[in-house]
Write a structure and sequence with these properties.
The chain has 16 helices and 27 strands. It is α+β, with helices and mostly antiparallel strands and about 625 residues long.
Length: about 625
Amino acid sequence: MATENEIKKGFLAKVPVPLLIAVIAAAASVIVAVLLIVFFSPSDTPVSAVINTDRETEEKEETDTETQTETEEETEEVKEEMLLQADKFPKNESKDFYKSDVKLFNRAVMYTANELKGEFDNVIFKYDGLTLQDVSKNGVFISNDINPGGEFQKLIMSWNADTSGGTVEVAVMAKLSDGTYTEPYSWGVWSAIPGVSASCSRKDKNGELDIDTLDLKEKCTAVKLKITLKKTADKAPILYNVTIATDRAKQEISKNTTVKKVKLNVKKRYQYDVPDIGGRICSPTSLSMVRDYYKEKGFETADTANGVYDNGEGIYGNWSYNVAYAGELGYNAYVDIYDIKALKYALSKDVPVICSVKIKKGQLSGSGFPDYSTNGHLLCVIGYETVDGVDWLIVNDPAKKQVEVKYLASEFETIWPGTVYIVQEKPERYTWRIGEGTDQDILVIADCIPEGRYNRPGGNYKVKYIVIHNTGNFSLGADALSHRNYVKDEGCQVSWHYTVDDKHIYKHLPEEERAWHAGDGREGKGNTYGIGIEMCVNHETLGTKDPTKYFYKTMDNTAQLAAELLYKYDLSIKAVKQHNYFSGKNCPQVIRENDLWDQFLENIQQRYDKIKAERG
């Protein structure tokens, strides 16, 4: 009987040579394809497999031999697929998009744009929000059912958007007990463009929308959102998030804080200092005090009032519009419904809280204001304390000449139904878009290395240089996101400030902090005074010679970033240095070996000149 090996040999001997070669080639192609899928997967590839920086501690500079063996057509297919993936916001970055790190939601639920599911009509999710696909037409998004938690009859919508070039209209369709939906209740057309924003109250058989608050006639558990976007000026509006606050029973942060006493340093503003409209602007005056608290400069209370004005009702106190305006200014802002415990918790987290109150004569007698009354008023709570066993709230009340007053917490609860504005600074992530209106319009995604890590040595130094590197990572998976993951790894020993690829920019450190990138030591000028920028070479699969169009796009993106930084720090083009200048290393290698440095500097200078001309 023939052995198994003999049978195999006999079979192979009978197979025609051309067929055998074809079979072997096909098998090899499958193996290579599998390796490529594993190796180039942007979300699943271990960072250690693709990251190889050009720093002195990372000297390995090999090209990917598997990629070199591909045909030009196969390489282009892989690149195009990678670019399609790059158009989507990284999935592991999206959950907390435009939400603050300190979560202060009580009865409100915030939904970031990319969390919304439903029907898209000329509306797409791009980079950081919902925007128009074709800017020549209006866009409408209708969500699937959204359950903001428990039963509710009262609902307040708020949102954050960039509407400097158009309008956003947010409407709600409540789901009734029989499974049908109400007609849309619209919070009106909102825009940062003066004279456009206008609410549109209405009443029907199912409920009443009174300016900013919807009261339904039956309890509901779900709604659908209808969001309409329209471009009216130079750029399409972008909706970042929507927040639904309801009178549901469940409360998220209603808990005691261990902080016994708080007083935030909030500048006083008196609403009657503004002529003509002083008696009507308690809400924007309170919001102005919060803007002061976050160290905004160069604005007047009247500027805030003009920004929040509701042309439909002719008022300054539309709750939704006040926080929408704060959102336009770059804050994470929303309307919520609080209680005293939630209020104290927010204050203990260093966030002032704007509260809406109604006061009848005598309700603040114990606080020393027996004759104080108002049908509706906004004020800014800045702290709390206990004196001789009695709880007090410290308040900047814009209607009081002295502004800062104290109200008994027990009395305050009787005048305050719980409505608040929460205005927070967003985490540094997702806050800076460079090159707006140009072909280099890119969102800078800042997600810094945690403090205390070896590769975040800290310090606060005057910026003197922009130090240009390129990575030594030629694999397609080694893009800006991968380098973000690499420098945030706990064992990483090197660092720099920005990584740029042909689609994205990630920020890893505050610009004025020292980083380990220039190769000139702890006290070296490059490490200490230089903003390190890494340019990805992840499309240069054939090595450093003859850069691809993707590297030129990366160079353009880097030039725009460098120009913005030169303008920010009032530096000249002479401040832009190669890594080689500080360490002698052949870096940025691709630029140096292709004689692109002068062209790169000229690109930066042109972009800087344009910024200077536009901004002064």
